Amino acid sequence: MFPEQRMRRLRRTPQLRAMVRESHLRPEQLIYPVFVVPGEGIDHPIKSMPGQSQLSIDKLVEKLSQAFDVGVVSTILFGIPSHKDPVGSEAYAETGIIQQAIRVLKERLPEMMVITDVCMCEYTDHGHCGAIVDGDVDNDRTLELLAQEALSHARAGADMVAPSDMMDGRVGVIRERLDDEGFGHIPIMAYAAKFASGYYGPFRDAAESPPQFGDRKSYQMDPANGREALREVELDIAEGADIVMVKPGLPYLDVLSRVKDRFEMPTAVYHVSGEYAMLKAAAQNGWVDYDKVLMETLTSFVRAGADLILTYAAIEAAKILRKE
Ligand SMILES: [Zn+2]
Fold it and tell me: What are the residue numbers of the active site?
């Protein structure tokens, strides 16, 4: 009790504050999401995500070399295919944009951890995350497509696959397919609790993947449901997920914290496009100090229980960490 207890004693100097700091952000925790397009020499800025671009493979190699040099050792790839169709054929084609990108990256930057997003929405002409039957995504038919997609990524050399579709049973189906085909060593990072969020807006510009009809509420989660998120995570772990993810980040810190406390699994959080865009917009208006609010945000994820953070600000954050 006061006056014996004075909380301010340990806040007096930078040294004291550093000594008792509870949460630390390290560059190895950051995963940099990128958008790959066909072609050469393409660096096409994404308007709603200042500082981010759609990149052709040659430019992607340049960008990821920069990331690697500042300590960001992992990336997650999103592909924009040359053509889209109802069953998203390019998602699992050997010559698909992602499969090509993986091969080049593993050759040019062999130490970079290449994670792939496994989903159909970038590749389907209707923009939904799976095969459509009677106007809605058909869960079980989609599973086979996802298994093929994950396998084609592993064959191309991906280090990890990350299913983001929210179909029931997909982690188990992907695990089984990878194991059967000799890829038992490839981990699965499951987008376990992915909410139907308005914060994905800028991403849909970037990935050119907005649904052409309806929305994704029949497969992504209701933002109001925290307990349901725990059930989703539990099922993905039972099916063989190695890392579980909560998405988006800041509006779901409570979910992140509960997931970590309950399951003690390696846990990732996705600091999504809308969260990134809001920070950028406020900073451009001079309303917040970008570096400060960025680091505060990323540190809040670690404090809440995240081991890994997917963020478009990965390179910026790693540079800031170097200066500190
Ligand atoms: Zn999707």
Answer: 194, 247
